[in-house]
Structure formats: structure tokens, C-alpha cells
Amino acid sequence: MRVPVRLSAPGWPAALRHPRVSGPDPRGLLEPDGLDAESFSRAVSAFRLGGTYRTTAPGRHVQSNRVLLDHVPDRPLTVVDVGISDGSTTLELLDALGDRVGRLFGADRVLALTARRRGRWVAFFDQDRCVLVATRHLLLYAPDALVPLFAGAPGQRVSLVQPALERRARTDERVALVTHDVFAPWPGPPADVVRLANLLNRTYFSDADIGRALSQCHRMIVPDGLLQLVENRPGLGEQGALYRRGEAGFVRVAQVGAGSDVDGLVVGD
Ligand SMILES: C[S@@+](CC[C@H](N)C(=O)[O-])C[C@H]1O[C@@H](n2cnc3c(N)ncnc32)[C@H](O)[C@@H]1O
User: Residue whose CA is closest, atom 11 of ligand 1?
Assistant: First the structure.
């Protein structure tokens, strides 16, 4: 549900911290050294950017990783994970594929924000647009009226990517983090595998938009390459599907749980 205000969970008694009305406090991201990986993921999950929540958590693609490993050829591959949020699940994808990764691109429309503080209030900006004001008690998602309060406050770059993945991108030449919009042409090398996890969601995008994103995926994947969709719907666990790229579209080759909610759009039923 897209609400303009949520309670900042740590500032309220536990009885009021229902996930429908409350969210994590993202202000810890200004000092990421003080956060462990789990707290970092929680803090990043507070954001809603481009209409999609940044929600993520490690351990939620276990079955999909296994299915992918069963279907990829045994050679170094170019893999693109689009919509990585903080990259927790990207790190796990890297581990799962091991030496089958020739290149891995962790891609998202936004990888960092700019934070400006006024006392304990923090405004987060995506370019020039304020996307969230966080206080001890509230998360305000339509904060335009508050923006003048932060005029003149110095900006601090806030990475939304797990420090462990940023380190990996610096030290492992196979790994790169790139800003990329799933609706735009892929500017990198043709991909053997593309994963979209918790991105092509009908509560976020219209069927026409999902169709446009799938067309871009078709263009970026090599003939016979793989597209994997993963979904973690609240209360339903992990589900999704793996598709092979054909000349004219995609063919489903494997499924996890109930499959993908957008399967009909992928295979053109
Ligand atoms: C719910 S998170 C999924 C994170 C991770 N893949 C997972 O499954 O845990 C959705 C992510 O998609 C990104 N996203 C939203 N719109 C996008 C777009 N048009 N292009 C690329 N990424 C986008 C968001 O910024 C967010 O990080």
C-alpha cells in the first residue's frame, strides 16, 4: 500500500509497530560502520523510490539460486541482477554461481542518495527530489513542504549498497555496480543471465510497463540465455520462474513455488 506517512518503528512501543503502518529508521545509513548487514538491509528497506519499495533481506532467493545453478552452462557467464536494493541477494547470487560468474553487474535505478540533516531530522534526496524525511517517530514520503527546512544544509552521500558488496566491486574485477533503469536499453555486454527479483510487480507497474521491461530484457540476453524472475510475496514465501530466451520471446524452463505472478506476460499467454 502506498501511504505518505509511516511510523518510524524504533521510536514507538512494540504494540504499534505493525509493518503496514510502520517502517525501519533509515538514519543509521549516515554512519554505516555502526550497522551490521541485517540492520543495513532493514534501514535501506525504508525507502520507496520510483514507486517501488527497496525492501530486501538475505536468504530469500535460496531455491531460485539452486534452480539457476541447475540450468546454467558450465563456463564463465555474464550475469546481470537488475533491481538489487542493497545487494544482499546479489552477494548470495555471486556465492551460489561461484566460478560460473565471468562478469556480474549489480544494477539499480538508484544506488545512492544525498542526505541533509536538520537536528535529528534527515531529508534524503534522489538527485534534486526529496524522497523521504525521517524523524525519530515518522517516515514522511511526500515531504515537499518540508524541503525548505533543509536548504543550505550540507549534503552527505549515502550509499544504499551493502558495504560488503561495494568492497567486492572494488576488489573482484568480475563484479561491477551500475546505475540502470530496467525500461532503458542495457548499455553493457550481452547477458547470459538476467535476474529480476521483486521488481516486475503488478502493484508497482502496469502490464504495459512490465511488457516494456521484458522487451528490454529480451534485447539484452543472448540467444538461449536465461531470464529469472523471483518474487517474495508477504506470507507466500519464495516463488518465481526461469525462462530461456528464444527468437520471438521466452519459454519457461523451471519454476519455484507457485511460479511468477507475471508468467502470462513473459510467455505471452
Ligand atoms: C523490492 S526491491 C528488490 C531487491 C532485491 N532484488 C530482492 O529481491 O531482495 C526492488 C528494487 O528495484 C529497484 N527498481 C525500481 N524501479 C527500477 C527500475 N525502473 N529500474 C531498475 N531498478 C528499479 C528499486 O530501486 C529497488 O532497489
Answer: 83
Whole-number Å distance, alpha carbon 152 to ligand 1 midpoint, is 31
Distance between Cα 223 and ligand 1 center (Å): 25
CB atoms closer than 10 angstroms to residue 156? 14
pTM over 0.90: yes
Cα-Cα-Cα-Cα torsion 253, 255, 258, 264, nearest 10 degrees, comes to -30
CATH class of 62-110+160-267: alpha beta
- Domain spans of the chain? 5-51+113-159, 62-110+160-267
- Ligand 1 centre to CA of 54 (Å) is 6
Ligand 1 is surrounded, with C-beta below 6 A, by 49-50, 52-56, 60, 82-85, 89, 108-110, 181-183, 197-199
Report pLDDT digits (tens) over 209-256. Answer: 999 999 999 999 999 999 999 999 888 899 999 999 999 999 999 999
Indicate which atom in ligand 1 lies nearest the CA of residue 183: 19
Can you state the angle between helices 88-97 and 62-71, rounded to 10 degrees? 30
C-alpha to C-alpha distance for 114 and 50, rounded to whole angstroms: 16
pLDDT 10s digits, 121-163 = 999 999 999 999 999 989 999 788 899 999 999 999 999 999 9
Q: How far is the CA of 155 from the centre of ligand 1 (A)?
A: 24
